[in-house]
Amino acid sequence: MWQAYMVGALEAASLFACFVILHTSTDVLYATAKYAPTTVAKGWFHFVCLVSSVGILFYTVISSEGAACLFYTSWNYILQVIYWGWVYFAPSVNYQARFVLFDTIFPASVAVAAVVWLMLFPYYWAGYTGEQGEALINAISFMQHGVNVAFLIVEYVWDTPRLVEWRTVAFVGLLPTTYSLFAIFVHDLESGEWWPLPFLQITQGTSPLWYLALLVIHIVPFFILRWISAWRVGRRATEETTPLV
What we know:
The protein is an all-alpha fold. It has one domain (about 1-25, about 35-240). It is about 70% helix and about 0% strand. The protein has 8 helices and no strands. The protein has helices spanning about 1-20, 40-65, 70-90, 95-125, 130-135, 140-160, 170-190, 205-240.
């Protein structure tokens, strides 16, 4: 089964690259980033995001009797809950690490939405039955795979422009890599044919490409975010140095 060796090599290479990137410098990530005090309006926005995220997470976990934790959406959603709780209750505490978390979950959330609507939904809808595809068309799914991204976009636009450090890409890469290894472990533990994500079945001839695509679909949004952030910082610097006429 050559696919398993290819996938194993890909995941090992991803882990190695992530750790190398993180150790290329001893500097603290976002050491020069500045903290901007939270306004009342923004505080209410954070509160709404936190309450809605916690409520949806609890609902999905309880209604599925914990099975939701096997899926990447819940992994990503837990990180979002941590961010919203952090920025609401203690925004000034170790805010550099909070920036790292945001710059990790933002691309990951975009990737999750892309996976659900561009990969899973067509797969289920054209598969053996449309029931699983129809299960994605509900308010909870829209919140987990769409509205949450909108919340993060508002947070990003509302926040003070800052640069996104390239080393953060290591954390972005670790998320899908860790989950891929987890999915393989769960499959082997079940000793069956069930996979948390159906396109990760190693027995398929195209499985190495799917694992690679899952990684790429995280990395690309990160570098787009990094480019936009650099543009925002440059634009603000130009506005501050341009004299008023």
